[in-house]
């Protein structure tokens, strides 16, 4: 015989005095003296009676209590204990808050301020996104061990060694971040995984670069006056990386000095100081020529919006059948400074934006060698333009 259900009405529940009232089907409302109460579902499963709370009244209405009761009655009909199932779901939900994908995103957000451009290019996160999270993203971070990491990175460990190294590094940061959150993780998992994977066979190759003696011919061939060629010319003349050149804003230039914001400088760990670049006469002429293409203050504007992409200059060189890449001109400059000048090491390195010396040494040495660099870059410009005087001599080079 089917038990009657839905015996109560919303008005009857509201008007009821303190006591217990059945809606049928095991659903009860326990009213208090103050008019509040709670909903309780009574069921029989595995030969015993179980009572589970379905929420307080009036926060949970009669209609909502009936829907919730039917959901758990269905669980009973399947032979499961609804209370144990609800507890398991709560535990799983709590664990899901600590999936590797969640921890990785949280770690990324907490480090954005430390990353160039707040990590907007996605380079910090992409090794995780491409090689770790597709297989381990839904795994609770506390469950990840060295075997999981080995299995994920094994396919690229030797063939894409640098990518695999970055992915391993990012994962290690995520594990440390999880530990800081108070989660139980194996902080040695990545080191153990490296032991399982073995020493990488792949050798990192340097970016192909033109010999410094071949730079003048290439520089002088950049004579079409396009945005890409002008950007390449300035990159060569200043020995800077692609990003500072591409994002050069006119308000960064004052006279013959270009001040690159610290956030645009890579490889200057240990300093948050903006970097001054002395502009040779030729570099200033290139900037003047490029101003005709400026948009929103950016000297090397893209076709539709923003600035030219990271690949624009590389593709240009590739179309000319060159294996060398824009970044290689930094090596060209550095080799020239070493082979054709007696410029002090710290002057040549500072020209490239490198931080020279230890923390204590830098604390006492406040100079950025601007005047010495001005002389060196003017001579480098002369070499690129094919003018004489390719040898640079510094007086008392040992002490500058």
UniProtKB/TrEMBL annotation:
InterPro entries: DNA_brk_join_enz, Integrase-like_cat_sf, Integrase_catalytic, Integrase_DNA-bd_sf, Integrase_DNA_bind_dom, Integrase_recombinase_N, Phage_int_M, Phage_Integrase. CDD domains: INT_P4_C (cd00801). Coiled coil: none annotated. Transmembrane segments: none annotated. Gene3D superfamilies: 1.10.150.130, Integrase, DNA-binding domain, Intergrase catalytic core. Belongs to the 'phage' integrase family. This is Integrase. One of its GO terms (molecular function) is DNA binding. Keywords: DNA integration, DNA recombination, DNA-binding. Residues 205-377 form the Tyr recombinase domain. It comes from Litoreibacter halocynthiae. GO terms for biological process: DNA integration; DNA recombination.
């Amino acid at each position: 015989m089917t038990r009657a259900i839905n015996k109560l009405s919303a008005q009857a529940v509201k008007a009821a005095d303190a006591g217990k009232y059945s809606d049928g089907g095991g659903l009860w409302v326990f009213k208090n003296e103050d008019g509040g109460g709670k909903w309780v579902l009574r069921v029989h499963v595995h030969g015993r009676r179980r009572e589970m709370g379905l929420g307080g009244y009036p926060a949970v209405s009669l209609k909502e209590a009936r829907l919730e009761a039917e959901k758990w009655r269905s669980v009973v009909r399947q032979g499961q204990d609804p209370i144990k199932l609800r507890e398991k779901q709560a535990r799983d939900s709590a664990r899901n808050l600590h999936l590797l994908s969640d921890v990785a995103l949280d770690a990324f957000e907490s480090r954005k301020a430390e990353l160039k451009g707040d990590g907007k290019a996605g380079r910090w996160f992409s090794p995780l996104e491409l090689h770790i999270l597709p297989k381990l993203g839904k795994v609770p971070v506390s469950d990840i061990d060295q075997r999981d990491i080995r299995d994920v990175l094994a396919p690229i460990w030797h063939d894409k060694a640098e990518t695999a190294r970055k992915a391993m590094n990012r994962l290690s940061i995520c594990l440390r971040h999880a530990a800081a959150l108070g989660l139980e993780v194996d902080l040695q998992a990545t080191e153990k995984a490296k032991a399982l994977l073995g020493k990488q066979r792949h050798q990192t190759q340097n970016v192909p670069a033109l010999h410094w003696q071949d730079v003048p011919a290439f520089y002088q061939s950049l004579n079409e006056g396009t945005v890409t060629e002008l950007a390449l010319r300035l990159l060569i003349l200043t020995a800077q990386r692609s990003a500072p050149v591409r994002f050069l804003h006119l308000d960064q230039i004052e006279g013959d000095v270009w001040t690159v914001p610290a956030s645009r400088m890579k490889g200057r760990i240990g300093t948050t100081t903006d970097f001054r670049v002395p502009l040779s006469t030729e570099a200033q002429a290139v900037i003047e020529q490029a101003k005709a293409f400026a948009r929103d203050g950016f000297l090397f504007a893209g076709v539709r919006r923003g600035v030219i992409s990271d690949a624009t200059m590389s593709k240009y060189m590739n179309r000319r059948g060159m294996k060398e890449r824009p970044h290689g001109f930094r090596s060209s400059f550095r080799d020239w400074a070493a082979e054709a000048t007696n410029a002090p090491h710290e002057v040549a390195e500072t020209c490239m934006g490198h931080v020279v010396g230890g923390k204590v040494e830098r604390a006492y040495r406040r100079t950025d060698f601007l005047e010495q660099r001005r002389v060196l870059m003017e001579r480098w410009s002369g070499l690129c333009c094919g003018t004489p005087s390719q040898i640079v001599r510094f007086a008392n080079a040992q002490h500058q």
